[in-house]
Amino acid sequence: MKNSSPVAVIDSGVGGISVLKELIKLMPYENFIYFGDNKNAPYGTKSAEEVCALMMANVEMLINKGAKAIVIACNTATAAAAKQLREKYTQIPIIGIEPAIKPSASYKENSNVLVMATPLTLKQEKIHDLMDRFCDDVNIITLPCPGLMELVEEGKTEGVEIDNFLKKLFEPYRNISFDSVVLGCTHYPHVKNAIKKALGGDVMIFDGGEGTARETKRRLCELGLENNTNQKGEVIISCSDSEKDIKPLAKRLLNA
Fold first, then answer.
1. Is 135 a catalytic residue?
2. Catalytic-role residue among 74, 135, 145, 239
3. Tell me: domain 101-207, CATH 3.40.50.1860, correct?
């Protein structure tokens, strides 16, 4: 691997663009390949075994394209496949993402924390281990959000349809005042403003993108793989469905 080789960022669609934004912000001189597996989306309603098999194939493909590191910009895929991927591909750093439960628990004492995620992410042992570590300090409520990722994939990040969807989603919790919200899917930061609007402007939003970017930089530096240049890096966006190009939407979300 060369220092100028790209960092590969992978998600089931355009959600991981929220992580890519943080990576570029922190490491503007790195080259990136973004891969959205939109042909097989959504991951959040599949079994862990299905997601793991898809990730094995996709990571193999990205390594063959010359990636020097893999960033799994998907909470579902991280929970379902990160351990297996690290065991198989020992020659390359593989960085996952996890819901930002720890910082949300530290935000306010005895607070109400809402964890929004896909149904599969909320079934995984990893997120339950995280919640168990901090449930004594805060009141954690989990909320599966089937359908929200699909709206983002359609480019619907604001407007009446998103507002109505969220209003219905939050209806069972209308009598609870949430202090913070953990966005446990990388698609959800793209509708962060709509979530704040639906729950009230004072709610604090946490997601794992920034922490993932910091860990990626740390791993690259640790292995001497950082791109030692002062030229802005190149970003290549690709996807698995040749009939549905994600580039226009991905670029819009990247620049939002």
1. no
2. 74
3. yes
